[in-house]
Design brief:
Blueprint lengths: L1 H55 L5 H26 L2 H22 L2 H12 L1 H10 L8 H17 L4 H13 L3 H14 L4 H14 L2 H17 L4 H13 L3 H15 L5 H24 L3 E8 L10 E8 L8 E6 L5 E6 L15 E9 L11 E4 L3 E2 L3 E6 L1 E2 L1
Parallel strand pairs: 1-8
Antiparallel strand pairs: 1-4, 2-3, 2-5, 5-6, 5-7, 6-9
């Protein structure tokens, strides 16, 4: 800020010089020169007239008249000097200078957003501290939304001054990713990669940004960047994780399992992250099994539903047949409603009966089938309903379900 105020002083001094210069060097000098030229011209004209009059005999004392004319011109010189001195007096300029200074700073303080400029400068000074906290991640207190905005402003200011700072562009890209600002993240990461294309950290962050955008062509570039990182550092868990996620999203479950297995080998079974990797591997293997079952025509289960003689059928209702995972989870993977009619009933459940597309019935290598007689049409109400369930059976098999229990 000190430099800023020095610059304003310099500008005001320049304005004062522009204001003062014409008073000393402009119009007074011009007036004097013009007056001298006018006097000379008048003198020559008058001398010419006197000569003409003398030739005609109208004037007998020509020399005396010329002398008087010269004397009158000399008498005009002191008057000019005094006028110039009076007009050049500094006392006349002081009020104008004071008004110029007052108007200049008054206008700036009124419309110059001095408070915002001061806040901006303070934000720039906090940049090192905020950058350090962002880089520390979970080891430091999380940044608030205001601090993230301050960090972004400070970074943009520094990058305007040092546009070739790859680390600064990398940091700005990470902020864009944290704010889900794809345009800022991609632009900043691309700039960082252009400045430092062989930096593994830049390659990783740029690849993650491209994956976040989701464009197929950019995703392919992201895979190339990640594979280049793994080629340099076979134990880079972040690159392997991104590659595994990308493979799973592309339904390349076998490749995803390979990457996650490699990660588990690197961190060991004692690492807390191993359990998460196990779940990811199981999920990918289940999806792979579902794909294989569908290809082999095994993505179905045949069910025969029988009614125990002790069960009295209600006057109205439906039979809900549901497929559950082998661990007996209450949330069904697939289900079908059947109008209440004579028993036994037979049906075949397929992926078309799955509850959500993201988890097909064919993703279960083993399963349990349940059947329930629903009397009120509300699937959440079970009190008094009759039901039965099968043993654990493999996908593609068949089973009998006997309804003989009551909630």
């Amino acid at each position: 800020m000190t430099l800023f105020w020095l610059v304003t002083v310099a500008l005001v001094v320049l304005a004062i010089l522009i204001f003062v210069a014409p008073v000393f060097f402009g119009k007074p000098q011009d007036d004097t020169a013009s007056r001298d030229e006018l006097n000379k011209a008048f003198f020559k004209d008058r001398v010419g007239e006197l000569e003409s009059e003398a030739d005609e005999g109208l004037v007998s004392n020509r020399e005396e008249l010329v002398t008087e004319l010269q004397q009158s011109l000399l008498d005009d010189v002191p008057v000019q000097s005094e006028q110039r001195k009076a007009k050049s007096s500094p006392a006349i300029l002081i009020p104008g200078i004071l008004i110029l200074i007052g108007v200049s700073y008054g206008l700036y303080l009124t419309v110059g957003s001095l408070n915002k400029v001061d806040t901006w400068q303070q934000t720039v000074q906090k940049l090192p501290e905020l950058s350090k906290r962002l880089m520390q991640g979970d080891n430091a207190a999380p940044l608030t939304d205001q601090e993230m905005d301050d960090l972004t402003l400070g970074l943009r200011t520094r990058l305007h001054e040092t546009p070739d700072d790859a680390t600064g562009w990398l940091l700005l890209g990470r902020i864009g990713m944290a704010n889900r600002d794809a345009d800022t993240a991609q632009g900043a990461m691309k700039r960082a990669y252009t400045l430092d294309p062989n930096n593994p950290e830049v390659q990783l962050s740029y690849a993650q940004t491209l994956m976040m955008i989701g464009d197929p062509a950019q995703s392919e570039q992201a895979r190339r960047l990640l594979k280049a990182v793994v080629k340099q550092d076979h134990a880079n868990l972040r690159a392997l994780s991104l590659l595994a996620f990308d493979a799973y999203e592309r339904s390349d479950y076998e490749q995803a399992v390979s990457y996650w297995t490699m990660m588990k080998t690197l961190i060991g079974d004692s690492d807390p992250r191993a359990q998460m990797l196990d779940r990811s591997i199981e999920r990918a293997q289940a999806q792979l099994q579902a794909v294989n079952n569908a290809a082999n025509g095994n993505a179905s289960v045949a069910v025969k539903i029988e009614l125990d003689p002790t069960v009295t059928l209600p006057a109205q209702g439906v039979v809900i047949v549901s497929v559950h995972s082998a661990d007996g989870a209450p949330m069904p993977v697939a289900a079908r409603r059947i109008p209440l009619s004579e028993f036994p009933m037979t049906l075949t459940l397929t992926d078309g009966d799955s509850m959500i597309p993201e988890r097909l019935m064919s993703s279960l290598p083993n399963l349990i089938v349940k059947a329930r007689i629903d009397t009120d049409g509300n699937v959440t109400t079970k009190q008094g309903d009759w039901y039965g369930q099968s043993e654990v059976i493999p996908l593609g098999g068949s089973t009998n379900v006997l309804i003989n229990k009551q909630y």
